[in-house]
Amino acid sequence: MSVHIASTTAPVNIATLKYWGKRDTALNLPTNSSISVTLAQEDLRTLTSAATSASFERDTLWLNGKEESLDNKRTQDCLQDLRDLRRALEEQDKSLEPLSQWKLHIASENNFPTAAGLASSAAGFAALVVAIAKLYQLPQDMSALSKVARKGSGSACRSLFGGFVAWEMGEQADGSDSQAVQVLPLDKWPEMKAAILVVSDAKKDTSSTSGMQRTVHTSDLFKERVDTVVPRRFNEMKEAIVQRDFPRFAELTMRDSNSFHATCLDSYPPIFYLNDTSRKIIRLVDGINAFYNETIVAYTFDAGPNAVLYYEEKNEQKLFAFLYHLLSGVDGWKSKYGDEQLKAFSD
Ligand code: PMV
């Protein structure tokens, strides 16, 4: 019996304007629009293969070589939507095989630590949806597929596009207009780079879903953030991206990271995602920008202590000169730069 198979990779995206808060938990509809940068494929990514055959007896999912339960509602919602889209195709074209009725075997692998605030669920659900969409030969309208990925994990909808991506929160109660769109492809701003400082690869202790719920229900700052601050920032940040205005983009990114973590701290009981090392990195970035009297680097932190630094390639040496002094004893540098080259940074 024939087996159909398709594979894809999806990169991680890191928000520069954070999604934090759901107006509809079942459909993953956000309380604000958000913006992110999708990292390059060769950096952090999920590789997913999906197979289907009339002979398969049950749906299965393997994550990093371990079988995982497919029982959770979010995954089931994604699979259901994809099967419905395939069924619609089969009804139009009777010569198609009934893939929508067959069971699926899915295998997924991350090349980075899972659930450590490195947006693994974003890459994971994006790869799952695109792999099955390929398997089912669904029309590749990424914004339409982003609505399916969104149900798996909100931020996943943004990983369907490369470069700078906006997730428009939408207004409809059924989520039909809550989708991702590309703001600018990466090749239009190729100097933009990201460095990830992995402060800890431990699993985070407050999941984003429960953290968001607590913030929405208990933080006083939250209302100001979603009603006033983020809508204004959403337009300003899109403008800064289109104009490739790094200092403006960087300031908005840092302000938004601060604002998001402030609402976490303002939740009751408070949620702490940053730790002492994260705070040192914030001070270091401030210090670097002050030293050069120019904003050459921005920090941002998701629901965990790890930092993502954005900078333009022309400033890599200026930035790494500082980072090397502080971090040269830590693993991870040698993969891209040799010792000699690193020493040259700090001279
Ligand atoms: O998509 P989730 O449920 O993993 O939430 C992501 C939340 C943040 O990473 C903190 C912000 C964002 O916009 O990605």
From TrEMBL:
Residues 10-180 form the Diphosphomevalonate decarboxylase-like N-terminal domain. Its EC number is 4.1.1.33. Keywords: ATP-binding, Lipid biosynthesis, Lipid metabolism, Lyase, Nucleotide-binding, Steroid biosynthesis, Steroid metabolism, Sterol biosynthesis, Sterol metabolism. Residues 195-347 form the Mvd1 C-terminal domain. GO terms for cellular component: cytosol. It comes from the Eukaryota. One of its GO terms (molecular function) is ATP binding. One of its GO terms (biological process) is isopentenyl diphosphate biosynthetic process, mevalonate pathway. It catalyses: (R)-5-diphosphomevalonate + ATP = isopentenyl diphosphate + ADP + phosphate + CO2. Pathway: Isoprenoid biosynthesis; isopentenyl diphosphate biosynthesis via mevalonate pathway; isopentenyl diphosphate from (R)-mevalonate: step 3/3. Belongs to the diphosphomevalonate decarboxylase family. This is Diphosphomevalonate decarboxylase. It comes from Maudiozyma humilis.
